[in-house]
């Protein structure tokens, strides 16, 4: 009589346990709580990034396993990333932001970046953060790490990825709570677009990293030249 468990069948590794994923989510949430209580210095991105990196290491995974790579070569990656970034920025400035400001009665609170206006030094610092903490760091955290971990829980099916996209985008929006209600909703919408780009490009992070970097670069240039809507 055959055994109910095949002889060569191994139990699931603890690294693949759903309990480990829930523990990671708890740590992820703890970083958010610490940030809301102003216990985080500068930015929560390095802490979340470290959590994502540790998650990969414990699973024996590499960067490319969550999509750190090009989409059909440098040329196509740059082209799609730049066009997507410009498109997202135009939609934000001329569509979603005015609509949300009308509904909520407030523009996103970007007062934290007032020092960039007319100040070359702070513009350079902000652009350096844009392409490291914001573009690379946040795309790895919210698209490369968080979407994949959510998909691990709900299933790596089409519907599972839709759920992962929605939840990760809302959490991405909440990470911008300092910008007020309009900023949270606006960034949630941006998160959906960047996450959809990640999925559409075969879960390659380079394209949304470039798109994210382009949108933030345009924002800081507009702030520097005193042309960002609602800022004086």
Please explain how this structure is put together.
With 232 residues, the chain is mainly alpha-helical. The protein has one domain (17-224). Helices cover 68% and strands 0% of the residues. It has helices at 18-36, 45-58, 73-104, 120-154, 158-174, 180-200, 206-224. It is globular and about 50 Å long. Mean pLDDT is 91; it is low at 1-12.
Assembly type: single chain
Please provide the count of β strands.
0
Q: What's the end-to-end separation, in Å?
A: 80 Å
Number of helices: 7
Overall mean pLDDT stands at 91
What Rg do the Cα atoms give? 19 Å
Bulk shape: globular
| Integer count of domains | 1
Unreliable spans are: 1-12
Taken in chain order, the helices and strands follow as: HHHHHHH
In what range is the share of β-strand residues?
under 5%
Structural class: mainly alpha
Helix content: 55-70%
Q: How many strands, which pairing sense, and closed or not: the largest β-sheet?
A: none
Put the structure in a nutshell:
Helices cover 68% and strands 0% of the residues. With 232 residues, the chain is mainly α.
């Amino acid at each position: 009589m055959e055994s109910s468990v095949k002889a060569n069948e191994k139990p699931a590794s603890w690294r693949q346990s759903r309990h480990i994923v829930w523990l990671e989510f708890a740590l992820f949430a703890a970083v958010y709580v610490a940030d809301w209580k102003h216990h985080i210095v500068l930015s929560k991105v390095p802490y979340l990034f470290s959590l994502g990196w540790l998650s990969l290491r414990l699973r024996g995974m590499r960067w490319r396993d969550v999509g750190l790579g090009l989409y059909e070569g440098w040329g196509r990656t740059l082209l799609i990333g730049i066009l997507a970034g410009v498109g997202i920025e135009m939609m934000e400035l001329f569509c979603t932001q005015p609509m949300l400001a009308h509904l909520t009665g407030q523009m996103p609170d970007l007062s934290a970046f007032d020092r960039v206006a007319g100040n070359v030094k702070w513009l350079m610092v902000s652009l350096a953060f844009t392409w490291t903490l914001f573009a690379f760091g946040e795309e790895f955290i919210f698209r490369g790490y968080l979407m994949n971990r959510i998909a691990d829980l709900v299933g790596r099916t089409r519907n599972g990825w839709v759920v992962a996209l929605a939840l990760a985008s809302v959490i991405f929006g909440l990470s911008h709570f300092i910008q007020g209600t309009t900023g949270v909703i606006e960034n949630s919408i941006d998160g959906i677009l960047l996450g959809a780009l990640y999925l559409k490009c075969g879960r390659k992070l380079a394209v949304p990293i470039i798109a994210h970097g382009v949108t933030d670069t345009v924002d800081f240039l507009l702030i520097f030249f005193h042309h960002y809507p609602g800022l004086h």
